[in-house]
Write a structure and sequence with these properties.
mainly alpha, single chain
Length: 165
């Protein structure tokens, strides 16, 4: 339930954010800061998983919120880039178009109906592709290792006698 609420809140922020400006150096710095913050979030979530009373459930929650945030950071950047002069993409991107493009890159589907045409848009798309690989490899491994530690820790804890009374 918590993951659903967080994801809905993130999506609401994305769709209400005024992303109708050009992609500038400042927005590039904000994107970089958001990706660094995502790294901090992953570390915090891994610790939370390892110390959770329900490490398996906490892992699913962590993956859900992390994937949503990762995708929305890139979708926001693509939406901003579509307002550049010259435009960064083959067509102007709405919030939905930008999210659609982000998801097609993440899933490697690549329908090719939206294409990055500027050097900056192509570079950011390449960063997302590499980020996708890192995300799938590193983040999944970190979360699964934290879950393993949490399950092992729970198995080694003395039983709770409160339920035996």
């Amino acid at each position: 339930m918590r993951t659903t609420l967080i994801t809905v809140a993130l999506i609401a922020v994305y769709f209400t954010a005024p992303l109708n400006r050009a992609f500038t150096l400042v927005t590039g710095v904000v994107l970089s800061a958001a990706l660094l913050a995502l790294g901090v979030l992953v570390a915090w979530q891994a610790r939370s998983i390892a110390h959770s009373h329900s490490p398996r459930l906490r892992t699913i929650e962590a993956l859900g919120t992390t994937v949503a945030l990762f995708l929305l950071v890139f979708a926001s950047s693509y939406r901003l880039m579509s307002h550049d002069t010259p435009p960064g993409f083959s067509e102007p991107l709405t919030h939905i178009d930008a999210l659609f493009f982000t998801i097609t890159i993440f899933t490697s589907v690549g329908f090719s109906d939206i294409v990055p045409i500027s050097q900056t848009a192509r570079a950011l798309t390449a960063v997302q592709m590499l980020g996708d690989l890192a995300f799938l490899g590193i983040v999944a491994k970190v979360f699964l290792e934290a879950m393993r530690q949490g399950v092992e820790r729970r198995a080694n804890e003395p039983p709770d006698d409160a339920g035996d009374r």
